[in-house]
Give the backbone structure.
Amino acid sequence: MKRVAASLAAVLLALAAAGCGDDGAEPGAPEGATLVLDFRPNAVHAGIYAAKHEGFFEDEGVELTIREPSSTSDAASLLEAGRADFAVMDINDFGIARDRSADLVAIAAIVQRPLASVIAGDRNEVRTPADLGGKTVGVTGVPSDDAVLDTVLASGGLAPDSVERIGIGFNAVSALAAGRIDAATAFWNAEGVELRQLGVPTREFRVDEFGAPRYPELLLVARSPSAEGEHALVDSVIRSLTSGYELLGDDPADALDDLLAEVPGLDRSSQTAQLEALNSSHAFTAGDSVATPELDRESVASWRRWAQLNGLLGG
């Protein structure tokens, strides 16, 4: 399904990005580019994979290779080392990297609202954030976990030390399902969906509904520009993504088919449930009902104020 990419009038927050394309390519040959994901491929990446499977990147003269990370810290180091052209990064990881003077820019939004939440394993016992007082809460150890948890606790009038924090790594599903903890910081679109599929009677406190602003959780990031050709590459990638998101908004089932075709090992039922959760929560829309990768400057500014207030970033 070939579509004409809708052009973005401007790329907010960042005006360009870096590339490490093939300088020796023959005239008219596709320009090679590498994109590193933030995690294993899943429904949040549907717009990217739809653009790839439908040939939108090829239409723009870009031969895109998508790679999975070996760890969540891969993105910034690979970009800075010139071993990747683009990376999907959690906005908090991006901000921390920028705070340490990493020469990176955000050029698009992969998801337009926070995915972070505090999930309780018993919805009858924990009905409001205030009910978390005195409970055990699992955290992964990622710096943003404490900011998310503190924000949700504050919305219930609780202090940060009102809960017992237990390091569980990325095992929220098994820990909650087994009743080893009362709640955990986790993503409502992934762990939250999986827990419901397991029949765990959860209650979710999504951070942007309990004290945090609405901000783009996942960003498409690149190095700062250094050549005119790099501007052209980022423009081509953004046009391709715009077409992918247009497809995602118009026909989510088609976009899901594209994701599963590109990543055959994914479970259809799980990814269907995740994509439905994302779409029903308007996670791909920014300011209106249209799915888009466009980056909104004000939402990023709101995130930065929240991140500074919660100690994630310097003042």
Remarks:
- The radius of gyration is 20 Å.
- Strands lie at 31-36, 62-67, 86-90, 104-111, 116-120, 136-139, 164-167, 183-187, 203-206, 218-223.
- The longest strand covers residues 104-111.
- Confidence is low (pLDDT under 50) at residues 1-25.
